Amino acid sequence: MTSLLPKKTIAHQPTVAAIAIDHLCFSYPDRLQVLDNICLHISPGERVGIIGHNGCGKTTLFMTLCGALTPTAGAVRLMDKPVMAGGFNPQIGLLFQNPNNQLFSASVQDDIRFGPANMDLLPHQVDERVDAAIALTGVQPLAERPPHHLSGGEKQMVAIAGLLAMKPQIVLYDEPTASLDIRSRRRLINFMYGLQQTMVIASHDLEFLLEVCDRTLIMYQGKIVADGTPREIMGDDNLMHAYDLEKPHSLIPHVINHHK
After folding, report:
1. How buried is residue 124: exposed, middle or buried, by Cβ count under 10 Å (0-12/13-18/19+)?
2. What pLDDT is attached to residue 41?
3. Which of 11, 94, 124, 249 has its CA 20 to 30 A from that of 104?
4. How far apart are CA 156 and CA 179, in angstroms?
5. CA atoms of 169 and 78, how far apart (whole Å)
């Protein structure tokens, strides 16, 4: 029997974008349109890789997202809150290309502690965050050492630990594997799988992005020119060639037996 009662409609609340970029532009005094009318929405929990040659605007985009640079035009919102240039944006963390720009305390443990200690947390909460970040990144043996005595890869992991200890909702990684050895790179991949944070990763390490990311963008001359799954984007010979990029080795069919 058909009911004559009106059907009850269920209102679905739209998901707030973790990052919402609308018509973003940025120019330096000596270089115009470094970012050229970028529109981009990234959902909470997405892991997005950005690829493109040096100078295409990846780092400038990151600096604009975290409020270090003021856009020439357009707007950025993080979790539906506008980014205020020069302000403190605790919901987002940035890993610099060079970890020397991020480490400054007398010891590794002090460096990792610095962020949480300035977030109005109770002392035991700071300790818990520091201990968890040290354990996750595997830097326990380095805890008492001065950061400037570490190798490049060790510094990189300490810088990542400092970011994770702050528990930002969004993390921007600028070339995170550049200084890592194979073991540290694998550790980074493994613990990234378990993190719920929204991640945007700029990297020339395309095999890393294939493993970690669920979405890939190509930047070229300040624009987003391609957007899709990692295999869809990086497996497209014509697309990669058009923007001066090489297809990842793992996506190239191997038909020659090199061991004869």
Report:
1. exposed
2. 97
3. 124
4. 7
5. 9
How far is CA 205 from its chain centroid?
13
| Residues 225, 49: Cα–Cα separation, whole Å | 13
Write a three-state SS string for 167-196. Answer: CCCEEEEECCCCCCCHHHHHHHHHHHHHCC
pTM: 0.89
Tell which residue, 158, 161, 156, 154, has the closest CA to residue 175. 156
**Distance between CA atoms of 23 and 137, rounded to whole angstroms?**
37
User: How big is the chain by its Cα radius of gyration, in Å?
Assistant: 21
Whether 67 and 50 have beta carbons less than 8 Å apart is answered as no
pLDDT digits (tens, 9 = 90+) for 52-97: 999 999 999 999 999 999 999 999 999 999 998 887 788 899 999 8
Residues 6+ apart with CB under 8 A from 117: 126
Query: What's the distance, CA 173 to chain centroid?
Result: 3
Side by side, the strands of the sheet bearing 31-42 are 31-42, 19-28, 73-78, 81-82
Q: From CA 202, how far away is CA 217, in angstroms rounded?
A: 9
Angle subtended at Cα 194 by Cα 113 and Cα 236, rounded to the nearest 5 degrees: 115
Q: Which two tokens stand for residue 4?
A: 């004559």
For residue 88, the tally of other CB atoms under 10 A from its CB is 9
